[in-house]
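Researcher: Next sequence.
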Amino acid sequence: MSRSTTEVARTLFSRALEQGGYFTAKQAREVGYAYPHIEYHESTGNFERIGHGLYRLTSLPPGEYDDLVRLSFWSRDRADRPQAVVSHDSALVLHELSELLPGKIHLTVPGTFRKAPPRGVVLHKATLSGSDIEERSGFRLTTPMRTLLDAAVSGVSQEELQKAVSEALRRGLVRKSKLGDVVRTDPRLLRLRQALEGVA
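Model: Next structure:
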């Protein structure tokens, strides 16, 4: 038995809602929209075409992190899975661990990632585990712990790193004992160990 038009629309709306209002043509087809239906809704203004195979529901207004959602979709692989994770300076700001305003968006992608970054985007290549990532609406973000580890080996100043560590500990985003265990076993994290030692 085929699904009703209302059920199909509701399923797509629910999917798009989890993704900042965005969806791919593949996702639309999976829930029951054929290409002519997608084209029809684009022509009537229900769907806005953003890029190749990428659409947005016009009934959902763009969110605060619309640029990050778009980059997540930009990074998707052939199986339609986003590869990019917001990280480094950008993650520090999103976790409210820094008041810096980075001039570029920092993303971590797998080592096999081959797309050239759009203007204003810095790509870092690394293998992230599931415990390094948290989900946001439409994009993924490194956890506070992973963000501090990345900041320690990037261009963040020691003063900013110290502030970030202090704030993360104060708000309970990371445990001091766990952070201490990590920095003691990795010589690359000397700056983070010094920042941790500087916390009262």
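Model: Residues 104 and 120 are 5 Å apart (CA to CA). Residues 5-18 form the longest helix (14 residues).
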